[in-house]
Amino acid sequence: MDWKNPKPLTPDWGLPFTWEFKDEDYPLVLFFQGVQMPKWAGYWPGIPDYKKVDITHYYDIDSYLDHVYGRIDHDNLESEEAPSFILAAQRTLESILERPDAFERKDWSREQQAEIRTDVVEGLCQMIQLAEGEEVVFWTNGLTKDLEPHLEAIRRFRLGPGHPEYLEPPHRFWRRLAVLRQLDMQRDRLRDLVNTLPVDKNTQVFVQGLNRFAE
């Protein structure tokens, strides 16, 4: 898709994912790169105070890793650049290994804590391994029947951008759209400036002629 022509503004995957769930459906089944993960493998956000672990040696990437932390348990279809996902997964694994009490909660029995910890660690190891050598990774939280559209999304992505059935990874779509919306905000600001400040005619004509991207 031409980055200057981002329509439609919502990705049309044409895939029959489950959109509504019942209480008894939780925890949802996590599929990663076509493989079903352990029951609690996507429970990263449930790790208490994971951000309190010292991460100063990671420089400025903490906010970037939040892109994965905040979406690992989302339903429907999610994606990420494989190296970025591995970075987030390894950071989570490191946090767990550094903190034996990472899963201690008053409302969990010791058996529950052990089960969740085991599933998360095993899931992280599997996901890191599956992501190795990939360009982009996909995951889905849903019902067992959501494996089929999940696999179809991966197949369509691997067809390549030139194929009519190509599926653009969701994270790329949303990030590009976010940039385009920021471009529009900048252009609105530029128009305000040339309309209110003394600006030469050529600059004024140039700015007024700039098109909007994300309409």
What does this structure look like?
The protein folds into 2 domains: 23-168, no CATH class; 172-208. The protein is built from 6 helices and 4 strands; from the N terminus they run E-E-H-E-H-H-E-H-H-H. Helix 1 packs across helix 2 (82-98), helix 2 runs antiparallel to helix 3 (110-131) and helix 5 runs antiparallel to helix 6 (201-208). It has a 4-stranded antiparallel sheet with strand order 2-1-4-3. The longest helix is centred in the last third of the chain and has 27 residues, at 170-196. The protein is an alpha+beta fold and 215 residues long. It is elongated, with a radius of gyration of 22 Å.
What key attributes describe this structure?
single chain, 44% helix, disordered N terminus, 215 residues, alpha+beta, 4-stranded antiparallel sheet, elongated, 6 helices
Secondary structure layout:
Elements: E1 29-32, E2 35-36, H1 62-69, E3 76-81, H2 82-98, H3 110-131, E4 136-142, H4 147-158, H5 170-196, H6 201-208
Antiparallel strand pairs: 1-2, 1-4, 3-4
Helix pairs in contact: 1-2, 2-3, 5-6
Q: Which spans have pLDDT < 50 for at least 5 consecutive residues?
A: 3-9, 52-59
Structural class: alpha+beta
Quickly count the domains. Answer: 2
| Helix-strand sequence | EEHEHHEHHH
Alpha-carbon distance between the termini?
Answer: 16 Å
Q: State mean pLDDT (0 to 100 scale).
A: 86
Helical proportion, percent range? 40-55%
Query: What is the global morphology?
Result: elongated
If strands are numbered along the chain, what order do they take across the biggest sheet? Answer: 2-1-4-3
Main sheet record: 4 strands, antiparallel
Hey, roughly how much beta strand do the residues contain? 5-15%
Radius of gyration: 22 Å
Helix count, per DSSP?
Answer: 6
The count of strands amounts to 4
